[in-house]
């Protein structure tokens, strides 16, 4: 099982960025995907999750309305579209696989990617 | 919003038992999961569904939950267990997931 994030980089405040998570080694269309971030020197912050079939999504209050999660089962990828970025969004962004199959409300992470760094600065 | 509260730090000597707590109002109704994060590495799941241990995780790691408090216990802590530990769970609605603030375990 492997998850590889990409798309991070330096972006100006107010701009947008799209992160991608490429999966391999498991039946991607059976599992939900989470996005989690970690600001430098800080703890983990859960951001969003999408169900195995993409039909349900949930967001943390801190990103609701600014971030959008998606899942393409044919490409085995999940994306996180981030709009109206702020300096406080600077963090290492992880995607993670849910542990249980066929969950409409995934809430159990088992495997993590290595993360992609997003820096929001002028 | 929903919060899970962990102590910022716990310190034990090698061979001692370390206990890390995670408190939240929804703990009686929602399972708690635990992750270990060593410095510079991605988190690793060490306990799920309050007390289940994934394959490959040493038996010295165990979890429990009682009332509003979940506890991660490391029996006979080793130097290599030095890491940050995070609990993870959902609010009662099942709409929000949240991590605890994390606990830095020192073994020396």
Layout of helices and strands:
The complex is a heterodimer of chains A (122) and B (108).
Chain A lengths: L1 E5 L2 E3 L5 E8 L6 E8 L5 E7 L6 E3 L7 E6 L4 E6 L8 E11 L7 E4 L3 E5 L2
Chain B lengths: L8 E4 L5 E6 L9 E5 L6 E4 L13 E6 L2 E6 L8 E8 L6 E3 L3 E5 L1
Parallel strand pairs in B: 1-9
Antiparallel strand pairs in B: 2-6, 3-4, 3-7, 5-6, 7-8, 7-9
Summarize the structure in short:
The complex is a heterodimer of chains A (122) and B (108). Chain A is mainly beta and 122 residues long. Chain A has strands at 2-6, 9-11, 17-24, 31-38, 44-50, 57-59, 67-72, 77-82, 91-101, 109-112, 116-120.
Would you write up a description of this structure?
The complex is a heterodimer of chains A (122) and B (108). Chain A has 122 residues and is an all-beta fold. Helices cover 0% and strands 54% of the residues of chain A. Chain A is built from no helices and eleven strands. In chain A, the strands form two sheets. In chain A, strands 2, 4, 5, 6, 9, 10 and 11 form a seven-stranded mixed sheet that branches. A four-stranded antiparallel sheet of chain A has the order 1-3-8-7, with no helix packed on it. The model of chain A has no long low-confidence stretch (mean pLDDT 97). Helices cover 0% and strands 44% of the residues of chain B. Chain B is built from no helices and nine strands. In chain B, the strands form two sheets. In chain B, strands 1, 3, 4, 7, 8 and 9 form a six-stranded mixed sheet that branches. A three-stranded antiparallel sheet of chain B has the order 2-6-5, with no helix packed on it. In chain B, β7 (83-90) and β8 form a beta hairpin. Classes of the chains: A mainly beta (122), B mainly beta (108). The interface between A and B is medium-sized, with 22 and 27 residues.
